[in-house]
Amino acid sequence: MKEEKGRKIKDLKNHIKLAAALVLIILGLLDALGLIKMGAYQGSFALIGVAALLITISAFILRKKESRTIRFFCKMVVAATVLELTLFQLPSYNMVLGDYTQDIIFPADSEVSGGTHIVDTENGSVTVTGKEQVSLDFKNLDMTVGTIMADIEFSDNTKRAQLKVDMADETHIEPRTDVASAVIVRDSEYSEYTACQFSGNVSQLRLKFSCFNDGDSVTIKAIHLNSVIPFDISAVRFGFLTFMVTLCYGIAVSGFLKKPFRQTGNFTIRSLLGLTAAAVVLATSVIMIKLPDEGFASRWSLKAGDQITQELVDAFENGQVNLLKEPSDELIAMENPYDWSARNLEGVSYEWDHVYYDGNYYSYYGIAPVLTFFLPYHKLTGNYFASDMAVWIFSCIGLIFLGLTYIAIVKRWLRGVPSGCIIGGFIILLSICGIWYSVGRTSFYEIAISSGFMYLTAGAYFLITANILSKGKISLLRTALCSLFLGLAVLSRPTLAVYAICAVVFLIMSLNKSFDSLKEKLAYIFCAAVPICALGGFQMWYNAARFGSPFDFGIKYSLTINDFINSQFHLIFMLIVIYNFIFAVPNFSVEYPYIKTPFGRLNANGYYFADAGNTSGILFLALPTFGYLLSGRALRYLPDRRTKLSYSAMIGLPCVVMPFVIICSVWESGYAIRYTADFSWEIVIGALLILFWLYRKSKNETKKKFFRVFMGISVMASVVVNVVQIIPFAFYENDYPEICRAMQNIIGFWN
Q1: Which pLDDT belongs to residue 15?
Q2: pLDDT tens across 187-212, in order?
Q3: Does pLDDT of 1 surpass 60?
Q4: Contact 216/129 with Cβ under 8 angstroms?
Q5: Same-domain pairing of 424 and 377
Q6: Same domain, 554 and 576
Q7: Element (DSSP H or E) covering residue 111
Q8: Which domain holds residue 214?
Q9: Burial 653-674 (b: 16+ CB within 10 A, else e)
Q10: Is the CA virtual torsion 71, 77, 82, 86 positive or negative?
Q11: Residue 239 domain flag
């Protein structure tokens, strides 16, 4: 009797909870549709409704199966909702304490001075043009000011404006300068509001407006004082706290995600494919956001291109290896045409970053994308390939092959590793892979990087799936494709030749495998050697045809900021790139962009080039990289010396030695963040393999639990640290202020 009564009470409680959830969901829907008017707090019920929906769905799952992770998810939904409506809306509560009276003042009623401006007395507005500050001085206000809202109209090409505030209050009779400031961004309602923390009644308020570019213009129509700052509920922030934090928690404690890959194969593979698809969508979104005003269709009918997409195409179509452009007589007559300062002093006309040798212009950039994409496209359509479309295609294909390569590695060597750790490792790999810096800035420099990334990941995929490094019958077709794509990677970017050397070593190592016959072994050697040797031979011929030596790629003859022929080697230049690519520590700040890594020159007393933008060292971008410190322990689990050497070569060569060679090799050309696509993902894969191997071999459950917690923390850290540094690089604040402002709103909720 008691049990039945208890069951009825429990059912009644569940029905009440469900009814309450349904009410909240309906209210949320009405709020989202704008049918409930809540003023500054619009969106509150919508968020609560979403939270109720997520918790209700989770509750139905819990009825079928208990899950610590789902219970944690429900708690995170509640916590994220509470935080989103309280702490993260801190500026909206700025005037909860205090006596604030709303008022509207008009710019034309102030004392207007400075800069270039037009006062419209009829409408009460002031138009500000250019970078110089225009001051609007309001005196004798005698009121408490908690917020300042500038009602601004932007001219067609203006994206943002600067506001700085001077004020005098009860504590200071003379105006304090620049006590408040804000950047007001077009189409960003939240940026129009400036929260103020003044000390009593304000007697004088001086608002100083300026634009960021000379041609920019804004019209200040009115100033609203003490308007309540509206809620700025962030779906990205809410989603990160609920889903990403829950995923990281699940990696550490979920019973399902603790199961090895052999038991969760389909789920894990689908997850990895889904993450790969998400990365492709994200890369596509970045490219589409940055399209020129003419739109997507216009990118396929260009009648002009750059050094790679047009000049090399035209040269090859004309049957020559030198470019069609002719050097000027002044350049030919120079004693040292490679001296940048001498060219500028003499006013010599020349083609920037072209190779000049023996009276002709050449290009030192890899020709694989020209031969495989740009030249055929021009032959077929008569148009030139757009560099942004090329980087987009190459990057997306490269991301797909990176995902397939990771899956191939998992299937062969990581079947005993927990599903959550495998998924987490791939999230880190996608975050760190380096191709985002090419997607974010699609100049012709990034064509070579993204093309090399595409062909290298394709070569790695076919290397793994051909069973060259693992058990199973070797696939001749996949061996040939591996050889072909690695050769094309070298033709895209000669730096990647180090990985072709690795492949050659692996191909030689695999000759010890048993073959059914001598004919089959010879066929394997043929498939492995012919494509890469043919492409290598073609590259050597191309080098000799241009510079008289099969081993001269011509970069030292480039007309850029440095004279590579006469520049001297200094060890500290190599140490600079080693430090910045590997050891540079991220600096955290409360100001945008919140995570910055100053470029470290190590106090070198000499000229060293560093391109725009830099990032943290890979040790801090991907915490599992510290796993290399445990390499010695991992080797102890291998049975004999030959096996140890074999596995040391398989991981050490492509994941440690060759990336280090690439990093050291850029000492002369200088630091550029785009180079990370050449070595970052390889380094991380090697570190993950070491850590996963140790996990499989460990019998200590405490250590295993600690490792899963470490992986969960690493995933969150990698996503945050990488994304927060990638966005400012991809979207310069002057060109994309709305995106930068959105990032500020998500992270800097206190502003």
Answers
A1: 58
A2: 999 999 999 989 889 999 999 999 99
A3: no
A4: yes
A5: no
A6: yes
A7: strand 111-113
A8: 103-225
A9: bbbbebbbebbeebbbbbbbbb
A10: positive
A11: no
580 with 445, same domain: the answer is yes
**Whole-angstrom Cα distance, residue 598 to residue 616?**
8
> Domain for residue 33, yes or no?
yes
Residues pairing with 118 in the sheet: 127
How far apart, in Å, do the first and last CA atoms of the chain sit?
Answer: 59
Phi-psi region of 718 (alpha: psi -120 to 50; beta: other; left: phi over 0): alpha
**Average pLDDT of the chain, as a whole number:** 92
Q: What is the pLDDT of residues 381-426, one digit of tens each?
A: 999 999 999 999 999 999 999 999 999 999 999 999 999 999 999 9
CATH code, 161: 2.60.120.260
Domain end marker among 75, 94, 113: 94
Each residue's pLDDT tens digit, 713-751: 999 999 999 999 999 999 999 999 999 999 999 999 888
Alpha-carbon distance of 27 to 33, in angstroms, equals: 10
The pTM for the full model equals 0.93
CA distances from 745 to 236, 237, 535, 568, 739 (A): 11, 10, 51, 47, 10
CA atoms of 514 and 259, how far apart (whole Å) = 35
Burial annotation 497-521 (CB, 10 A radius, 16+ → b, else e): bbbbbbbbebbeebeeeeeeeeeee
Q: What is the DSSP letter of 679?
A: T
Are 565 and 493 found together in one domain? yes
Residues 164 and 140 in one domain: yes
Q: Which two tokens stand for residue 327?
A: 């050097």
DSSP assignments along 251-263, one per residue: HHH-TTTTSBHHH
b/e 244-258 (16+ beta carbons within 10 angstroms → b):
bbbbbbbbbbbeebb
From the centroid of its chain, how far is CA 265?
29
Task: Copy the structure tokens of residue 73.
Answer: 């998810």
Domain count of the fold of the chain: 4
Matching residue, tokens 């996949």: 478
